[in-house]
Design goal:
single chain; 491 residues; alpha/beta; Transcription Elongation Factor S-II, Chain A; Rossmann fold; 2 domains; 7-stranded mixed sheet; two-stranded antiparallel ribbon; 19 helices; 9 strands; 9% strand; transferase
Length: 491
């Protein structure tokens, strides 16, 4: 099908339909087990993302800069029109390259990480250097990196975040939910039960605002009750692996090092929920300091950057609601006193590499993580990088799938949104598939997984996977899992 072209108000020709690939060697069916996720397989979520979702995202970026042109002209003058036209043209070319499954191109501009990217691209086998034949992680990261490079190499818009309005709107529309969560979490006692509830709210926070809006409170269920909010967070959600006890016990162990590294995912309301959890940890001496690891550039639409952190705190500090304003001021104090800090920016987080190569490709970042008690990796993309975007057997141990990446104790919190998952009881994935064929991409299932940095990669029979039994009648009864360590909370 030929692309549909329209002429916008600036006289520029903009495609409104993606060109179809002329490739004939893409394969029917899902990505096979024991292989990297790839858009080569037409029944994979990777193929759907590359064929439909990414061209749509690029079109949205085009419309953002075109619609912002009057504001940009007011700020920079008429010369910014040239920047905008060049960016639009470059994104249109990138869409064409994607849909025709072209080879990845080297970076030749002002990108501070171009040497690392170009080395990585040069080392890829030639058959794995095109969008649909490459590992999905490589193709997707390359697309987002190329998109920002167009801004980065412009004269006026080198710091322009084409996604910031989406992150800010997500926080603004969640105002009522933020008020409820803020009031319910003031002065919570230091107990495992409260910590566990905050973890679950944090895990499901992308659904939480909608669920809370639809929930009918009884007289016995006040909105500012953390128990009720945790129940709301769990509505229609299933926690497949729950190592919360192990995470708590890790944080409760005595020792001089109480630093927690938090590898962030999204901005907006999710970052608000992150801060509620991290504030609780600092207030109750579960962490002496929390280091936030944010993205160096605009990334995956909603990922958190340093300007997003600053904007969020400033928005809360100046909010008209007294509770939210007080909360913003408290978080600002935690940051100024370095109880919560933004870690030095690393482009490794916006690179295409899985985390098990960090020790070779960014030894300084790896050393930073070794100096903490716990590293918490939040979200689906971080999980994919921990797993190497590889389809493991679903019952394979979490620690095995990390492939030697053990700078410190590790926790992964993630809602399942793609075919990469591990650490499930034997047979659970098959039963889930029979009952819900979308379970791997729906976001309705989640995991909180933990491994100790010194744990060996062997099975420990007879230990129970800590899964809530009431979730299981329609699925499968839980059997022995692979979590290790005491299943009783310390303290």
């Amino acid at each position: 099908m030929s692309p549909q072209i329209r002429v916008n108000k600036m006289g520029w020709r903009i495609s409104t339909h993606s060109e179809r690939s002329t490739n004939t060697d893409l394969m029917e069916g899902p990505t096979p087990r024991h292989s990297l996720l790839s858009g080569r397989y037409k029944q994979s979520f990777a193929y759907l993302t590359l064929r439909s979702r990414m061209p749509g995202i690029m079109q949205q970026v085009i419309m953002r800069v075109v619609n912002d042109l009057p504001m940009l002209e007011e700020k920079f003058g008429e010369e910014v029109r040239k920047d905008v036209k060049q960016i639009v043209d470059a994104i249109e070319r990138l869409k064409m390259e994607l849909n025709r499954d072209r080879q990845f191109l080297q970076f030749h501009g002002n990108e501070p990480d171009k040497a690392e990217w170009n080395a990585f691209l040069s080392e890829l086998p030639r058959p794995k250097r095109t969008f649909f034949r490459a590992c999905w992680l490589h193709a997707e990261c390359y697309l987002y990196r190329r998109i920002f490079s167009f801004f980065e190499n412009s004269r006026f818009l080198h710091n322009f975040d084409c996604f910031d309005h989406l992150k800010q709107e997500d926080l603004i529309i969640s105002e009522e939910t933020m008020k409820i969560l803020a009031k319910a979490t003031r002065d919570l006692p230091k107990t495992f039960d409260n910590f566990h509830k905050l973890l679950r709210i944090n895990l499901w926070c992308n659904h939480f605002e909608i669920q809370l809006g639809a929930f009918t409170f009884t007289e016995e269920e006040p909105q500012n009750d953390i128990n009720v909010l945790a129940k709301v967070a769990d509505i229609d959600r299933v926690l497949l692996v729950n190592d919360s006890v192990l995470v708590w016990n890790c944080l409760m162990k005595p020792g001089p090092n109480g630093i927690v590294d938090y590898i962030c995912d999204n901005g907006g309301f999710e970052f608000f929920a992150d801060m509620v959890l991290l504030e609780y940890m600092v207030d109750n001496n579960l962490a002496t300091q929390v280091r936030l690891h944010v993205k160096a550039i605009p990334w995956y639409i909603s990922d958190l950057t340093r300007p997003d952190v600053e904007w969020t705190i400033n928005y809360l500090v100046h909010h008209e609601d007294e509770c939210l304003s007080a909360l913003g001021k408290k978080w600002a104090r935690l940051i100024s006193s370095e109880k919560i800090v933004i870690a030095p920016v690393s482009h490794f987080w916006t690179g295409p590499q899985p985390y098990f190569v960090m020790v070779e490709s960014d030894i300084e970042l790896y050393r930073v993580l070794t100096n903490s008690r716990l590293a918490i990796f939040k979200g689906d993309l971080n999980y994919r990088k921990l797993m190497g975007d590889y389809i493991w057997d679903s019952a394979e141990e979490f620690i095995t799938c990390l492939r030697g990446f053990r700078p410190t104790n590790i926790c992964a919190m993630r809602t399942v949104k793609c075919e990469v998952v591990c650490g499930l009881p034997e047979g659970m994935a098959d039963t889930l598939l029979r009952n819900d064929h979308t379970w791997m991409i729906s976001g309705s299932y989640g995991v909180i997984q933990y491994t100790d940095s010194l744990k060996c990669s062997c099975a420990f029979p007879g230990e129970e996977n800590n899964i809530k039994s009431e979730h299981w009648p329609a699925l499968v009864q839980p059997r022995s899992g692979r979590s290790t360590g005491a299943q009783t909370p310390i303290g």
